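Long-time lurker. I teach an intro course on protein structure, and each term I like to show students one example going from raw sequence to a predicted 3D structure in token notation. This year I'd like something fresh instead of my usual example. Would anyone be willing to generate the tokens for the chain below so I can use it in lecture? Attribution to the forum is fine with me.
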Amino acid sequence: MPEIKALLFDCDNTLVLSEELAFEACADLINKICAERNVTVQFTGETLIQEFVGQNFRGMLLTLQKTHGIDISPEDLEKYVLQEEDAVIAKLKAALRPCPGVDEQLEALQRAGKYQLAVVSSSALRRVRASIEKVGQDRFFQGDVVFSAATSLDKPTSKPDPAIYLHALQKLGKSADESVAVEDSKSGTLSATRAGIKTIGYVGPYADSKKDEMEKVLRDAGAVVIMRDWSEFPAALAKIESGEV
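-- Reply from a regular --
Happy to contribute to a lecture. Here you go:
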């Protein structure tokens, strides 16, 4: 069993409680895009989360084009992606909070100095950096260790494509079996596990009534251990390190 040397954290709703805020901003923009094209579909932040959790905005627009027959030119797509970034960052800067208990775990990991800590997100790099800076988590992720499927790759993509995890491993100089990922969504868990990385599924941000369902979703997507609260992280990591899972 190789020694675990790198911990790769998803950002949205894993490190910071951003999904609800971000999806509110997304819904406003997507409804405007649909209205401009005479498509009568209407989204709220909540219905968007149900349909698209774990995808970035580019991924959402590409899916919408297929499912609702919306025509968006490549130029408009790039324009909307930037507009969404601006709208989401404004909301995050106003109201973002860290996930409960995560800072305590990051502080303990930083003190121990045993692992390389990195962020691996579908969201745009500007948004990820704004998020971790807003809540003061940037102190845990020093240097070039924040990776974005929307920004860091030559060809932008979104989870569940494993490309961003493979890119992060390459840049960090770590192998998949030396690494552990933490993810809260099906698409994120698939992205990490398809890259060969053992993944801890985190269901903390979901409503209590949804936790059991999401635990099954993340296990089915390949998560080897589930935690409901960040206080369970040391035990979850120990299970992987001991080869128990």
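Some talking points for your students: The first helix runs from residue 19 to 36. The chain has two domains: 6-17+98-241, 19-95.
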